[in-house]
Amino acid sequence: MNEMTHAFTSLIYEKPEEGIARIWLNRPETRNAQDTHLLYELNRAFDRALADDEVKVIILAAKGPHFSSGHDLMEKDIPNAHARHETVGTWTGADWKGVEGHYVREKEIYEGFCRRWRDLAKPTIASVQGKVIAGGLMLVWPMDFVIASEDATFQDNTMFMGIPGAEYFAHVWELGIRKAKEFLLTGQPITAQEGYEAGMINRVVKREDLDEETLKFARLIADKPAFALKLGKDSINAAFSAQGFDNVQRAAYNAHHLAHAHWRLQSGMPLDPSFAQRFTKLQGKKVISE
Ligand code: ZN
After folding, report:
1. Starting at the edge strand that comes first in sequence, how are the strands of the sheet with 203-205 ordered?
2. Within 10 A of 26 (CB to CB), how many other CB atoms are there?
3. How many Å lie between the centroid of ligand 1 and the Cα of residue 232?
4. CA 260 to ligand 1 centroid distance, Å
5. Comparing C-alpha atoms, which of 191, 132, 186 is closest to residue 159?
6. Level-2 CATH architecture, domain 3-284
7. Are residues 127 and 204 in contact, defined by beta-carbon separation less than 8 angstroms?
C-alpha cells in the first residue's frame, strides 16, 4: 500500500505493483455515489499518478458490490469549487443567478473533469463490477479500457428524470448510434456482455477474477515505453475530435441544461437552483435575489 493512501478520504490510492497505480472509489456505503469531494479527490489522485514517473498505467476500481450509483443526490452543503481554489476550468464564479450556478458547476465537475480524464497523458483502465448508473458511466467512459465482471450492468436512467442523458455525452462513441438510442431513450440497463458486443468493454471476466484480470491487462501496458503510450493514446483520442465529439458534447450539454431548467419550471421550483443557495451560504455572501 502506498504511503500517500491516508491523504484521501473517499478514495484509496495505491501502487499494487511496478508501473501500476490503482485508485479505489471508497464510499461503498453509498454505492460509491460521487459527491463533490470525491470528484475533486479523484482529480487529485489522477494528478498524483501522472506526476509519478514510476506509474505507466492507472486503474480506477471500486470497493463494494457496485462500481458507482452516480452523482450523490443526497449531498448537502455542496462546496463552491471556486472557493476551494481547486478549479480545473474557468467557468466557476461567485455571481451566479438564474441557471448559471447549476450550469457552471456541472460544466466543471462533470463535463470538465470527464474531458480532462479522457485525455490524461497515461493509459487508464476502469475495473467495473455491479451497477453503473448515469453519473457512474462518467467514471467508466473517459477511461481508455474497461474490464467488467459478468454481473456488471450499465444504465443511463436520466430520461426517467426528464433529462436527455448524463452530462458527458459519449453514448454514441461507446455504443454506436442504434444501440445508443435504445440505451438513452428507453433508460434500460445493459449487461456487460451487451456492452462488450457494442464495443464499450474490452474484457468480461468472472467477478472473483476481476482484480487479477485487470492487473493482468495493466501489465500488458506497463511494460511499454511511457512516451510511446502517451503518443499512442493521444493519436487515438484525436479521432474524438475528427469525429466531431466536441460539437456533439457541447450541444448535448446545453440540451441537458435546457432540460434541467425546464424540469425546474415545470415543478414550480425557482430557476436559481438550490445549489446556488448552498454556495451562497458557504461563501458567506449573498448572490441570489429573494
Ligand atoms: Zn446535470
Report:
1. 11-17, 20-25, 57-62, 124-128, 145-149, 203-205
2. 20
3. 32
4. 7
5. 186
6. Alpha-Beta Complex (3.90)
7. no
What predicted TM-score, i.e. pTM, was given to this entire model? 0.89
Say how many Å lie between the CA of residue 191 and the centre of ligand 1. 24
Q: 267 C-alpha to center of ligand 1: Å? A: 16
For residue 24, what are the β-bridge partners? 12, 61
Question: Rounded to an integer, what distance in angstroms lies between the CA atom of residue 44 and that of residue 112?
Answer: 14
Distance from Cα 101 to the centre of ligand 1, integer Å: 11
Rounded Cα gap, residues 34 and 70, in angstroms:
6
**Ligand 1: centre distance to CA 285 (Å):** 25
CB neighbourhood size of 162 (10 A):
12
Q: Where are the domains of the chain?
A: 3-284
268 CA → ligand 1 middle, Å: 18
Cα 186 to ligand 1 centre (Å): 19
DSSP SS3 for 15: strand
278, 80 Cβ separation under 8 angstroms: no
pLDDT in tens, 122-157: 999 999 999 999 999 999 999 999 999 999 999 999
